[in-house]
Amino acid sequence: MRKVVLLKTVLLLLSVAFLMTGQGLSGRRAPSFALPDSTLRPFDILDYRGRWLLLEFMKTDCPHCKLVAQTLERLKPKLGAKAVILAVVVPPDNTATVSKYIAETKATTPILFDSGQTAMWYFNATPAHPSFDAPHLFAINPQGNIVRDWTQAGLEAPGFAAELEALIAGGGKK
Question: pLDDT tens across 42-59, in order?
Answer without folding.
Answer: 999 999 999 999 999 999
